[in-house]
Amino acid sequence: MASTACIPPVPAPQDSVGLRERARGALLGLAVGDALGAPAENMKPSQIRARWGRITGYVADRPAGTDDTEYAIFSGLLLARYGSALTPVHVETAWHEWIADREEGPFRGAGFSERGTLENLRRGLAAPISAQHRHAWSDGLAMRAAPHGVFAAGRPAEAARLAAIDGSVSHEGEGIYGGQAVAAGVAAAMAGAPPVAVVASALAVVPDDSWTARSLRRAMTAAHRGERAVRSAVVVGGYPWTDLAPEAVALAFGAYAAADGDFTDAVLTAVNMGRDADTTAAVAGALAGATRGVHAIPADWSAAIGPARGSCLPTMAGHHVLEVADLLIHGTPPGDTDGASPPPRAPRGAEHGPHAAERVRRGPERVTPGTGAATHSAPCDTGLPPREPTPPGTRRPHRDTPPPPAEVGT
C-alpha cells in the first residue's frame, strides 16, 4: 500500500466550511443520495431515461432511502460509543444485540452480505469467520463507512483501520477495501482536501493490485469524459448482482470526481448511472457533502430526510443522521464503553445536536419515531427466517469470486 501524509484534522482558518458543517454534510449527503438513488437501483441508464428522462430530484411521491442510511447510523452509533478503541468484539456484539438476537421479527434489512453474516452469527460463528459467505465482496461495508471518515477527520489511515474493524464481522477482501476507500476519502474531505487529494487518500489505503484500486484508477481516468465513460470503464457486464464493492465504489468516486466535488452534480451523476444507485449516490453524497458542507445540499432535498423509521433495522428507529454526525465530532461521555447495549430511540422533536450524546449514555428509549419524512420506505423484507437456537456450526465454504469486468451496454 502506498502511504499518505496525514491531512490536518481541522480545516484551515481561511476555510469557510467548519468541521461540524462537513460532518453534517457527509451524513446528510449520504441519506439524501440514498433516497434519490433508491428508485433507480438495479436499473440501466436507458431504463432510467425511458421512465423519468434524466433524474434531477426526487422521483418518488414520498422520498425514502434504504438500508444504506440505517446501517450508516448503526456504524456511527457504534463508533460514537467506542471511538478509536473499537474492536471486532465490539462490532460482533452490536450485530448480535442490535440485530441478530432481538425479538422484533425476522431481519428485514439489506442485501446478501448482511443476510449471510446474520446466518453465520446465528449459527454461533464469530468474526472473522462470520464474514465467510458468498457475498463478502459486496458494497455493504462501503455504504456504512462514511461515519469512520467523519470521526477520523484528516486521518485517512485511521479511518481505514476503523472501517476494516467494522467490516471484519461481515466482509473480507474487496469488500473490506471498498469500505476503507470510502472511509479514507471522507476523512480527507472532512479536512478540506480537494477532490484530487480525496481520491488519492482513498487509493493510498488499499492494495495497488486490488480490484478496488484498479477500478478506482479506471474511473479517475474516465471522469473528465462524464458519467457514460465512467460507467463503461468500471461496470461488470453480464453479472446479475449490482452490489460489487469494486464497481460501486468506483462509480461513486467517479461521479464525485466528474463533478469536481459539487454536491448536486456528484449525486445526480451517480443516480443516473443506475446499477446499485442508492449506494453509489449515498457514497458520492457523503464525499461531496464532506467536501462542500451541509449547506451545499439543496434545501428541498434536505427537508425530505427525517429520523430513520427502522424499517430495515428496528433498533435504528428515531435516529437522525444529523444526530449521529454531532455525536461523532463531539464524542461520547467517558465510561460508555462497557458493552453494546441497544441504541436509544430519539424522542419526538428531539434536537439533533450535542445533547444526543446524553441519550447514548442513558440507554434505550422506547418512543414513537420523530415526525417528518422518514429516511426509509416500506419494510425491505428479504425473507430471512428468525434466529434459530442452533449450536455453533462448522466453517462455511469460502465465498465465490465474482467474474472479472466485461463490456456493458447502456
Question: Would you mind describing this structure in some detail?
Answer:
The protein has 410 residues and is an all-alpha fold. It has a domain at 22-303: ADP-ribosylglycohydrolase fold. The chain is 47% helix and 0% strand. The protein is built from 17 helices and no strands.
Outline the secondary-structure elements.
Layout lengths: L18 H19 L7 H8 L14 H16 L5 H13 L11 H11 L23 H6 L4 H12 L6 H17 L4 H10 L6 H12 L4 H8 L10 H14 L4 H10 L4 H16 L6 H5 L17 H10 L25 H7 L48
Helix pairs in contact: 1-13, 1-14, 1-16, 3-16, 7-8, 8-9, 8-12, 8-14, 10-11, 10-12, 11-12, 12-13, 12-14, 13-14
CATH class call of the domain at 22-303: Mainly Alpha
Instruction: Please provide the count of β strands.
Output: 0
Oligomer: single chain
Characterize the largest beta sheet: strand count, sense, and whether it forms a barrel: none
Specify the helix fraction band: 40-55%
State the CATH superfamily name of the domain at 22-303.
ADP-ribosylation/Crystallin J1
What distance separates the N and C termini? 34 Å
